Amino acid sequence: MSKVPFIHVGNQVVSELGPIVQFVKAKGHSLSDGLDEVQKAEMKAYMELVNNMLLTAELYLQWCDETTVGEITHARYGSPYPWPLNHILAYQKQWEVKRKMKAIGWGNKTLDQVLEDVDQCCQALSQRLGTQPYFFNKQPTELDALVFGHLYTILTTQLTNDELSEKVKNYSNLLAFCRRIEQHYFEDRGKGSSSIRSS
Amino acid sequence: MAAPMELFCWSGGWGLPSVDLDSLTVLTYARFTGAPLKVHKVTNPWQSPSGTLPALRTSHGEVISVPHKIITHLRKEKYNADYDLSARQGADTLAFMSLLEEKLLPVLIHTFWVDTKNYVEVTRKWYAEAMPFPLNFFLPGRMQRQFMERLQLLCGEHRPENEEELEKELYQEARECLTLLSQRLGSQKFFFGDAPASLDAFVFGYLALLLQARLPSGKLQAHLRGLQNLCAYCTHVLSLYFPWDGAEGPPPRQTPAGPETEEEPYRRRNQVLSVLAGLAAMVGYALLSGIVSIQRTTPARAPGTRSLSMAEEDEEE
Lengths: 199, 317
Description:
A: Glutathione S-transferase Yfyf (Class Pi), Chain A, domain 2; two-stranded antiparallel sheet; B: 12 helices; 4 strands; Metaxin (chain B); membrane (chain B); transmembrane helix (chain B); protein transport (chain B); transmembrane (chain B)
C-alpha cells in the first residue's frame, strides 16, 4: 500500500515528496539546477527544518492535543473503517505518535512550547525569505513547494483553536508568499476550493 | 556570591574530551564562550543530579539535562556565541541543526550502538571498562537498547523492506549531509566567519566522534576523511579549544599502542592475580579433599609419594 501523495506514470507509482522530486529530476526537470553548491546545501537544510519543526508540530497538534484529538482527529482517522476498528486504529495511531514524540524529545512539551517552536521556525523562514518573491530569488524551488504546502494547510484547515494559523499570520511576507503562489499556480483550478482569502 | 555552574558529563576517551555526543557539544560550546563551568567528568550517570548525562546545575541549584536547554541557559547567562550573528545567520543555524538531527544523528547512533563490530570492539568496551562495578554489567546493554529504540522511532516511517536497504539509505543520506556541510563551510575557519557559533559546537560534536574513534567498521569515517576541509576544521577546534584533552590519546592513524600501554600494568596485574587465585583454589581443594597429602616426616617421604600416586589413581578411576 503506497503512501499519499503519489504519482502514477505508466506502470510506475512513486510516492512522497523526496522520491517524486528525484523521479522528475531523472526525467530531466529540476527546479534547483540553477543553484550553486552552497545554495543547494542551504535549501536541503531548510527543507529539513520544515520537516523537523512544522511537520512534527502538525503531528503533535493532531495527535497529542486532547481537544483536537477528541473533536477532529479520531473521527477523521477512523472514518473509513467500521466500528470498532475505527476506535482501535485511532488509538493505536495515537499511541505510536506519542511514542515517536517521546523519542525525539517532544514528549514533555506543552502546546505553548510547541507553538513557540513553530514561531521560531516561521521566523527563520521569514528571515530567509526576506523581500524576495521566492526563497532563492526569482525561481521557485522544491523548498518553496514544501513551505507552501505546509503553510497553506495550516492556514486553511479548520481546527479547534486558531493559534497555529495565527502564528503564521504574524509574518506578512510568508502570507504574501502563499497568496502569490496560490494565485500564480492554482487560480485556474476554480474558486470552489478553500482559499486563503476566505480565512 | 552565587555558586558556580556545574556541568556533569561523560568523561573523555579516544582522544576527545568526552565520548558522548551531547556532552561533547555542550563542553565545546562552553569552551567557545569561555563560560566558567566546574566540569565533573564522570563515568556513572547515577552520579549526575538528574540521572542522565550531560546535566547542568545552575547557580540557583536548578538542574537542566536537555542539551539545547543547557545552551539556552548559558546564552541567558550572557555566554552567547551567537551574539554577532545576523538574523539570517540565526535562521541558517536552525536549518542546519535540523539537517544534522535528521540526517547525521541516526547514522551516528547506528555506527556506535547498532553496528555489531563497532559496538563490541569500541563502544561497549569503553563503557564497560569505564563504569564502576556492577554498572558495567548491565548499563551498556541498557543504553544500547535505548539507542536502538530511538533509532527505530526516528526512522520509523521510512522503513523499507529489509535492514540492509535501510542501512544503505541512511548512510547514503549521511554522506550527502557531510558533503553539504563541507560545501557550506568552504574555506572559512568556522561556519559563520572567524568566530565560532553554536552551530560549530554541534557540528564539531558529530565530526569529532566520527573522525577520532578508531572504528573497525568505519564506512562514514572513510567518506569524512575525504572531505579535507571538515577534517582540518575538526583538528583546528580540538587543538585550539581542547589542547590538553586532545593530547590524551594517540591520533587515529597510529597503531593502537597508546591507551593499551596505560591499561597494560593493570591488565598484567589482573592476569597474575587471577592465575594465583586459580592456583590457590586448586591446591587448597586438593589438600582439603585428600587428593594430595603432605607428609612432614622425612622417612615418610616414600609413603607420601606413594599415597600421592594412589590418590591420583583413585581420581582417575
